[in-house]
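Page 37, continued from 36.
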């Protein structure tokens, strides 16, 4: 409507007649981008009435004025149809988002602020922003054998990657409760993937477990090394002692994963992440420096640390990631801090 009134004002001031009247069609055309069909028709009707009035005022020949109004009518009808189609696409997109959010909550369940003896926090961003889910996976669960966690990255994107991530998480959650040995948990996932994945598909994962006080077990299958932060300070990548291929490719190499044991005491923290974080580039094609970023934003609250890291990561890439990215941080509180809340039994 603003555009229509600007055209009318220009015609009244300039008195140019046919020079300005065809521009009235811009009103209903642009209205289709934000309004429904009823709004488009009202703008078109208003433009037609004002166009006919101005044409008669300026002495525009009837034939030329009829041509302008016919074109205006055609644009209005076409814009109304475009508005209807846009509304349908928006409703479909809203339904897809709703389903995607439901699937994400079922697949990537929220991580509570405290799990067993740990403080914990998670940040996840899918590259497919409209779908809000992707091929990265994480889970952190208490089991009869201590707290166990997994972070992984499925090869590929889209629905096939989501399906594979769901398979890995389903097997992990079941095996983590059943198997006392962490390597047996990884073997269960490997066997399941071997039956269900194609020859070119694979999943990189880090699986960790805290079965004994002060002792953290880590199994790395082709994934980025976790970052260990000691209470005394310093960020150290936990490089695997025995390099192991990703899950799904063991049959090609014959290598089996090894168990790595780390001391993990009060005040220590462990960050697990996917390559969507470390391979995020800025406009100069520079990778995001995760080690430096973690050291810069480290705090005694994992949620605050990951919030600062995630915000800095998005700023580094200019607001939108081009690959799925997941961050999972756990921290063992010190004795001097308030006790970690434990669930009560009624």
């Amino acid at each position: 409507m603003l555009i229509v009134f600007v055209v009318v004002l220009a015609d009244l001031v300039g008195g140019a007649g046919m020079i300005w009247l065809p521009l009235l069609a811009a009103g209903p055309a642009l209205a289709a981008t934000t309004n429904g069909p009823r709004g488009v028709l009202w703008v078109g009707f208003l433009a037609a009435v004002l166009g006919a009035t101005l044409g008669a005022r300026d002495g525009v020949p009837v034939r030329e004025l009829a041509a302008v109004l016919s074109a205006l009518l055609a644009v209005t009808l076409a814009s109304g149809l475009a508005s209807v189609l846009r509304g349908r696409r928006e409703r479909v997109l809203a339904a897809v988002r709703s389903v995607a959010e439901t699937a994400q909550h079922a697949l990537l369940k929220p991580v509570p602020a405290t799990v067993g003896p740990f403080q914990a926090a998670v940040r996840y961003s899918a590259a497919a922003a409209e779908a809000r889910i992707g091929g990265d996976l994480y889970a952190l669960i208490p089991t009869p054998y201590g707290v166990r966690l997994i972070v992984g990255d499925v090869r590929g994107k889209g629905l096939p990657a989501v399906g594979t991530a769901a398979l890995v998480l389903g097997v992990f959650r079941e095996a983590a409760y059943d198997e006392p040995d962490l390597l047996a948990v990884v073997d269960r996932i490997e066997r399941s993937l071997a039956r269900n994945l194609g020859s070119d598909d694979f999943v990189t994962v880090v699986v960790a477990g805290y079965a004994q006080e002060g002792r953290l077990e880590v199994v790395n299958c082709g994934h980025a090394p976790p970052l260990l932060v000691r209470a005394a300070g310093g960020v150290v990548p936990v490089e695997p002692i025995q390099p192991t291929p990703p899950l799904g490719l063991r049959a090609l190499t014959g290598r089996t994963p090894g168990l790595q044991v780390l001391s993990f005491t009060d005040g220590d923290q462990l960050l697990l992440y996917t390559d969507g974080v470390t391979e995020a580039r800025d406009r100069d094609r520079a990778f995001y420096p995760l080690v430096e970023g973690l050291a810069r934003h480290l705090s005694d609250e994992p949620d605050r640390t990951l919030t600062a890291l995630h915000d800095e990561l998005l700023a580094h890439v200019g607001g939108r990631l081009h690959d799925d990215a997941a961050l999972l941080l756990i921290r063992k509180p010190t004795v001097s801090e308030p006790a970690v809340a434990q669930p009560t039994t009624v």
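Residues 44 and 73 are 7 Å apart (CA to CA). Flag for discussion at group meeting. Residues 339-346 have pLDDT under 50 and may be disordered.
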